[in-house]
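Weekly puzzle thread! Below is a chain. First person to post its structure in token form gets bragging rights.
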Amino acid sequence: MKKWFRLLTAASPRDACPEVSCFFYDLPVLETKDLLLRPMRMKDAEDIYAYSSDEEVARYVLWDAHSSLRDTRAFIRYIRRLYREGLPSSWAIEHKASHKVIGSIGFMWVSRENRSAEAGYSLSRAYWNHGYATQALSAVLRAGFTDLKLNRIEAQHDVRNPASGRVMEKCGMRREGVLRSRIVNKGEYVDVALWAILRDEFHP
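Winning reply:
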């Protein structure tokens, strides 16, 4: 769990502009054709555990698969504390048709000085290849540029997971390069592909 927490806490109140703090304190609900992006709730624990305990879902991300509902509840409590502190955090991705939480998406950090941020997401394996990650990321990009007035939003993925890059590409992001041995994930150095989109490049 510590790795997941580090991933989500790159910003501090000093780094966030006032509208950022207000945005995350009262996280807005974002809607797409098939999804609701909304604040996480404690009652989401079983749904979140169902996908976060999947080793394949956790394979290329910086958090370890949850070993129990206790891990999941601790994660949700942590996210909800970020809300209360007005810090960059994540939405639950709710599938409208099933009313199940099928993933999470959010901002890892937001820079006041540079008007930039990094987005990241995870999705239940049962819902891969249906366009849901693309819908969710597009909604978050729109909120970042419209509500947070950002100029640049980045995202990165393990180069061994090109499917994540295809999601970014579908949302209009551009691949800017590969960062060699950028991070240590699950005991090994990992190359990551860096993608980004600028405000004037985003066409919702």
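Puzzle host: Confirmed. Bonus trivia for everyone else. Residues 69-85 form the longest helix (17 residues).
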